[in-house]
Structure prediction request, 348 residues.
Amino acid sequence: MTGPSFGLTVTDLHAAHGRSPVLHGIDLTVPEGALACVLGPSGCGKSTLLRVLAGFHPAAAGQVVLHGRVLDDGRDRLAAEHRGIGLVPQDGALFPHLSVAANIGFGLPRSQRRARVAELLELVGLPGLGERRPHQLSGGQQQRVALARALAPRPRLLLLDEPFAALDAALRAELRREVAATLRQSGTTAVLVTHDQDEALSFADTVAVLRDGRIAQCGSPDELYHRPVDPAVARVLGEANLIPCEGAGGAARTAFGPLAPAAPGAVSGSGLALLRPGQLRLTAEPVAGAVPAKVLGCDFRGHDHRVELRPEAAGLPEVLVAAADRAWPVGGEAYVAAVGPVHVLPGA
Prediction:
């Protein structure tokens, strides 16, 4: 579907490198002003999709439409410089010999340059730094300049190619919040590609999980995290315990006892109950529904401990628990219980 309410519409998109197919029928819609994320491991086709959108790589078939204008339909392709699309690359790619202001204003008409640069420096939180050179800035500040430069010509779509990957964890989290806020404030439609699930869940309105050149699932971060369509998507979005279950009396019957399903009537026959690590509880003494288990590993993460266990109940795989209370000695015994509701995936 295309129309004025949709910023970007990708329909049945195919692309290849030579004779090797890479993208297989991609469908993606990003409403105007929304932030979307394409999430997936290396080699799944993320970069190729980004290059097709930008105009650097041809589509083999399908259609890319931006604000009602066809950019590529597998036969005719609009040149990259005429698409009105901005790009923030992973390394920022700033001109080292130019000042911050000159980097941001590069390519803008001279009559608009001063006012637009001042506006963008304010927008990205760098007022007063226009005369500095890139080497005089921190990594996070350089990425803000790269964002400002991409926003300077007022693109109709902004593409972000893993722009936070080279930053340390704390700065990466801070900067992606700032970038998301900046894009929402400017009303820019944006597509981020990443392999970092935390980045995808915290940044985007819509997340598309790309697997082997196909979109396995697309929806809101909450939907994908709590209601993945298959075990692979569940694991891409975070650590996941997939426990065999049977539908019985409207509940998911597991080795931990009956657990309420997240969606009424969702349990029928054999399936896999999705339990995130925070849904498992560890105790030193047996409690109702708890299963004895051996502690295989315990890693301190600051806010909690990541505990790996091997339950003694038949049919239960090794499980992960996020235990906030204390460390559990490796090789020791514990009891693990589960709390619902649970999302049930089909198949055993």
Q: What stands out?
A: The chain has a mean pLDDT of 90. The first strand starts at residue 6 and ends at 17. The first helix runs from residue 46 to 54.
